[in-house]
Request: fold
Amino acid sequence: VTDLPTPVSTPTTRPWSVSALSAALAVVLVLGGAWVYARVQSAFPYYGTAYTPPLQAQTFSGTVSGVGGQPRPWTFRPGQGSRATALFFGFTHCPNICPLGLASLEKARQALAAEDRDIKHVLETPGS
Amino acid sequence: MTLPADLNPGLADLLALRFDPLVWLPVLAVAGLYGGHFLRARRSPPGQTPWPGWKAALFGLGLVLLILVTQSAATAWTQNSMALYMVRLMVLAEVVPPLLVLGLPRVRIDPRRPLGRVLGVLLDPWVALGVWTAVIVFWNVPAGFNASVVTNTAAALLPALYLLSSLLVWAVVLRPLPSVQPAGIGSRGWFGLLAALPMMAVAAVWLYSRQVLYTPYVGALCLWNLTPLQNQQISGWIMMLAGLPALALAFIQLMAWLIELADGGTQPPAAKG
Reply:
């Protein structure tokens, strides 16, 4: 390098063991920092999107297929009393993402008190 | 993350800007700081501070691209196109960092002072390689990648980590601060070669996999009428092509190192490029 003035002092190459230790420490700090950041942001940082402040879901009505395939009216009324309500839409034949979603939902359900558990499942048959 | 209704967006739809102060304000602060120092340096007597205009242009281009990939409407289609997501990540990892690093002025930092010591550790090739490999591996195994697609927390984290770790890698390769970076051209060539491997390995897996590896994309409604598997394969191509310039630079540095070794100091100083 010709356009640099004479350095105050030249950098020294550190031993490889010190460099390797610094690298291990940096990896722990980066991954640990990411984990702490995620935990501070949300109690379930890897399962869905947290809306702050929470959004109020709307009541809606429709027709669902009951026992024997007979249609029957159905109304979704979220948050009866002070309860939080989860609504899950899934397919009856869905080998991949539905079990993953249900497993996440089950974790959230276990974290709630028994009287607060209000999870409604709507299962759809592809092609219906 | 809301599902956009239009699955055939054009370039103008994708590049429509949004405003997140947590991104815009730091970028504007960095741009202001850089611009202020640049203008002051340009007013100083000629030859005193080598800070050419092309460096400022590259730095500015890097910041504009950073804003485009993090603050454009393209971020709303992440769940509908793995390929679009990968274009954004690769611009963050392989285009923005070299532009920013090339735009840095040549400054002299005393390696014995605290700033010099910190930069000396951060720009140690071992540290940069370790952090880069950890970020690439962790965020491309299904658990990490899935989280970055479906959650707002990890969705912000992954691009930030890609940018920061890639900045370290490109700073080691391009050596903008020789006063705290003792690594010669040979060791930087080997470093570049090793640093390119994790991304190439991930790209190869995506290219040759016969099934969609990430659950959020398995049944996804994809942009431009592509299937999830096609998206994954295109993402593999994007990642591989994005990694090629860094790989080519590593080979050039290794060749220069070999020529230096072969010369063995026998060439007169005037003949050394």
In short: Chain B touches chain A at residues 1, 50, 106, 108, 110-112, 120-122, 124-127, 129-131, 134-135, 138, 143, 146-147, 150-154, 157, 161, 165, 178-183, 215-216, 218-219 (CB under 8 Å).
